[in-house]
Amino acid sequence: GPGVLTQDATYSLTSLSFHIDDTFSPAEGVTIHGGARAEYIPQARGRDALNGFMPYSDEFFTLLPGFGASVEVTDEWALYGNYFQGFRPPQVWGFASVPPGGANLVFEKSRSYEAGTRVQSAGGFYGSAALWRSEFDDYTTFQSGFYENLGKIVAQGFDIVLDWEAGEVVPALDGLVVSGSVTVQDSELKTG
User: Fold this and answer.
1) Model pLDDT, residue 6
2) What is the per-residue pLDDT for 176?
3) S-S: 139 plus which of 14, 153, 169, 187, CB 3.0-4.6 Å?
4) Three-state SS string across 96-159, please?
5) Is the pTM of this model over 0.90?
6) Which of 42, 53, 73 is nearest to 8 (CA)?
């Protein structure tokens, strides 16, 4: 049969970013990394004349810093920590699926913290363990048939990774790596 036009939507988003960072070593075995990312979205817009989706337009700017440091305690053992900020804009077509009443979607921002240790030992064993926490403001989801900001979500947990390179012990097994990891996470909706 003949085709039926169900939508006539147009969407566009322009994004500009600028990054600056540096890594330096103020002392033997100490490495520090710092930087920032500027994100500017001068326009995010869309419309659907067929379905009555009203034209919208939005803009966004943020500065996202990040810092990290590591210390080599011995040749085989290091400690590290970092802090970074991030963001996630709504998908441009998501603005067409906001809850009734035209609630505006907010660009999701986040902060991540991590502290951990890495070990490289004899016998081909390598391991790491880390504690981490991520905080999301205005978390965006599509679970009720609409895109909406749920509120603040905090996720925290730890990771453990262990690798064994068999070729370090048995040359005939060069290239064989046995790996395992465990992640434990606890997430909670704090507001919304």
Assistant:
1) 67
2) 93
3) 153
4) HHCCCCCCCCCCEEEEEEEEEEEEECHHHEEEEEEEEEEEEEEEEEECCCCEEEEEEEEEEEEE
5) no
6) 53
